[in-house]
Amino acid sequence: MKALFSLIIGVLIGAAAVWIYATKDGQSSSKNAGDQIESAAKSTRDAIQEKIRVLDLRPEQIKDDLDRTGKVIRRKAREAGQAISDATADARITGAIKGKLVANKDLSALSISVNTTEGIVTLSGSVNSMEDISKAMLLAMDTDGVHEVISTLQVKPKQAKAG
């Protein structure tokens, strides 16, 4: 799957390079493309920051919850009539979250355990910072079928390698 994804990205980058060099206004076109990418990145960042604020996933709130109870729980409003109770739906949710963890360069899918029961996701393991707890919880909350996320993730910063 990673190889296929890398191949697709490589083809897209190659196609973009050919297009830029083939156009008369390659420099101005690439500048416009850069501006569009920058604009999209800013709007994505703003949307993520808003979700973190709305879901109370700011690092200081995570720290307060961990100090108070040893875990972080956030609930998402349930849509009327939507209830997930079968094991296949829970397995799908767990798989989707694990896939998102693998794709996220800031989080380690090997260090974070995901368990789902009736749409309630429990994240456990260790991360490098409070921000990583926020990112992992947001990633889980943004998965279809998730009603609640419970985090018992512990902050264990990376140790510098000797040598």
Keywords:
5 helices, alpha/beta, 5-stranded mixed beta sheet, Histidine-containing Protein, Chain: A, 163 residues, 55% helix
Quick rundown:
55% of the residues lie in helices and 15% in strands.
Could you characterize the architecture of this molecule?
With 163 residues, this protein is an alpha/beta fold. Strands 1, 2, 3, 4 and 5 form a five-stranded mixed β-sheet that branches. The radius of gyration is 20 Å and the shape is globular. It has a domain at 56-77 and 86-157: Histidine-containing Protein, Chain: A (2-Layer Sandwich), CATH 3.30.1340. The model is unreliable at 79-85 (pLDDT under 50). The protein has helices spanning 2-22, 26-54, 59-69, 87-103, 130-141; strands at residues 72-75, 112-117, 120-127, 148-151, 154-155. It is 55% helix and 15% strand. Helix 5 (130-141) links the parallel strand 3 (120-127) and strand 4 (148-151). The chain is built from five helices and five strands.
Regions with pLDDT < 50 over 5+ consecutive residues?
Answer: 79-85
The string of secondary-structure elements, in order, is HHHEHEEHEE
Main pleated-sheet profile: 5 strands, mixed
Q: Any idea of the CATH class of the domain at 56-77 and 86-157?
A: Alpha Beta
Structural class: alpha/beta
Number of helices: 5
Annotated CATH architecture of the domain at 56-77 and 86-157: 2-Layer Sandwich
The tally of strands reads 5
- Per the CATH scheme, the topology name of the domain at 56-77 and 86-157 is Histidine-containing Protein, Chain: A
Helix content percent band: 55-70%
Overall geometry comes to globular
Q: Span from first to last CA?
A: 35 Å
- Mean pLDDT rating: 77
Radius of gyration (CA) equals: 20 Å
Beta-strand proportion:
5-15%
